[in-house]
Amino acid sequence: MFVRGNKNRSGSVSVQIIQKVGRRNKVIKTVGCAKTKREEELLFMLAHSEIERMRHMDSLFIDHDDAVVENFVDSIGNDNLQIVGSELILGHLYRSIGYPEEAQDHNFFKHLVLSRLVYPGSKLKTAEYFKRHLNIDVSVYSVYRYLDQLHRRQKQAIEQITFEHTRKILGGSVGVVFYDMTTLYFEASQEDDYKIIGYSKDGKPHKPQIIIGMLVGGGGYPIGYEVFEGNTAETKTLIPVLETFQRRFNLQSPIVVADAALLSQKNIDALSQAGYQYILGARLKSESHGIKSKVLSFDIQENLPVQMQHPNGRLIITYSSKRARKDRQNRDKGLRRLEKRVESGKLSKQHINNRGYNKYLKLVGDIDICIDYDKYEADGVWDGLKGYLTNTKMDKKRVVAHYQNLWHIEKAFRISKTDLRIRPVYHRLRHRIEAHLCICFAAYALYKELERMLTKCKVNLSVEKALEQINEIQQITYTLPKSGRQKTKLLKLNQHQQKLLKIIE
Question: Which of 19, 59, 225, 487 satisfies CB 3.0 to 4.6 Å to 214 for a cystine?
């Protein structure tokens, strides 16, 4: 390296540090620009001093770099590295919702909720989460003992906090609520007065189960849930859930949206008597002959709703060619399965009923069972038609739009069963089952908050991808050799992780 002064057009001299690279001179640093001879001499002195400093640093690097790095790497163990993304980002969102933090018992509730998002699985996996993310040794029995302490009061407190957060997000009021229910089955468990074999939505009809009824607000933000015995009829869950949460949260008779599975005259009468407005999925093919004839008389255009009066309010009908194709495909699949059963010769008179596609069966003579293809083809007139029953006064397009938002609660159950691994349930004791559900409910609320903040902060990542990135944020703990001081530092973040930090800013 050497120093060179270049005279500019203005007469001043630019003093630079130059290094020979091959046949070319490379400018390493411009020290300054001198207008007088005295300034030029001073800049040359500074430049030579800088060269000495740079050469000294290079010699240190050359003489000691490999050894320093080797020694540093040798001193690092697994205990020096800790996954901190969940605490850094999800812990921030957990606190922003207002969920409790407890100094005692390792703040179990918080970490059980966070682990559902980044490390879902059995309680044994939860113990591994404490080690990997918090560097704390916790036995699985400690986790079970904590679950034994989670009382029903905790569920109500968590629901209250969640509801207040949802109300805040929705602008201070909850005008529309969406209700649906699902089933959760149990592995290696016997029936009791709580876990009972019933109609399973998980395709596990021979396993004991419970039923969960869940209430969410607009956008799928959670409000609360109730648990029922496994053989409870779907239609008997709606009113108890609504009454419970209206009483607890002082809800001012919101508009209730639910699918056709909850449609029963008893539910409709109870909703009307309690002063609720409702939007329910209608079963068009189960209506009276007069109503069905009128529905089929309409010339319903693509996605343009029509309406008619109904004993329970208004019946709104829409048509979709996409839905028509799907309905046709489903009927074709059902017909093929039915044809195989008929060919097997195992069907009898008892199979002629209105359960599913058995309605297309008919009896020929005294013992022969065959398929009524005329009835099958006649059913095609309903392909693509969808009905909505309401007692509200809102515009029919808004009714349809509200009902179509039911997918949020369907997504809530799908997230809970897949991403959060709420099922299968291995717990046997009722209070542990309830504690498990409470943790999963809070985890779903945290999932929705992360989803909301990703949108708000314009982070172009799905929740699943964001959780993967969060789960890879690590910090290192090291000790300075001279002072003996222990320090921690986040490992270098990638581009996605840097964007995720916007959430906590």
Answer: 225
Answer whether 254's CB lies under 8 Å from 285's CB. Answer: no
Look at residue 499 and tell me if it is in a domain.
no
Phi-psi region of 357 (alpha: psi -120 to 50; beta: other; left: phi over 0): alpha
Read off φ and ψ for residue 395, nearest 5 degrees: -55, 145
Q: Note down the domain range covering 366.
A: 326-380
Helix (H) / strand (E) element for 360: namely none
d(CA 438, CA 443): 9
- Structure-token pair, residue 53: 């400093």
What letter does residue 86 receive in the DSSP assignment?
I
Strand partners, 29: 17
Q: Is residue 451 part of a domain?
A: no
- Pull the structure tokens for residue 341: 């059963």
Task: Give the up-direction half-sphere exposure of residue 366: CA atoms within 13 A in the CB hemisphere.
Answer: 0
Residue 14 within a domain: yes
Q: How far is CA 314 from CA 282, 291, 299, 400, in A?
A: 11, 12, 18, 12
* Domain-located, residue 364: yes
Q: Strand 13-21 to strand 24-34: parallel, antiparallel, or no bridges (unpaired)?
A: antiparallel
Domain boundary among 19, 54, 75: 75
What is the C-alpha separation between 233 and 285, in angstroms, rounded? 21
The residue out of 26, 50, 75 marking a domain boundary is 75
Cβ-Cβ contacts under 8 Å for 385 (sequence gap 6 or more):
284, 295, 300, 317, 318, 319
Residue for token pair 């290079």: 58
Cβ neighbours of residue 425 closer than 8 Å, sequence gap 6 or more: 184, 185, 186, 187, 433, 436
Residue by residue, pLDDT tens for the chain (505 residues) are 788 888 887 778 888 888 888 788 888 888 888 887 777 877 787 888 777 777 765 554 555 556 666 666 666 666 777 888 888 999 999 999 999 887 565 678 888 888 888 877 666 677 777 777 777 777 777 777 777 777 667 888 999 999 999 999 998 888 888 888 887 776 655 555 455 665 555 556 667 788 888 888 888 899 988 888 877 877 788 888 888 888 888 877 789 998 887 778 888 888 888 888 999 999 998 899 999 999 999 988 888 899 999 999 999 999 999 999 999 998 898 888 888 888 887 777 777 776 777 777 777 766 678 888 888 888 899 999 999 999 999 999 999 999 988 888 777 777 666 655 555 555 556 777 788 888 888 999 999 999 999 999 999 999 899 999 998 888 888 877 667 788 888 888 889 999 998 888 7
Domain count, the chain: 2
d(CA 63, CA 45): 27
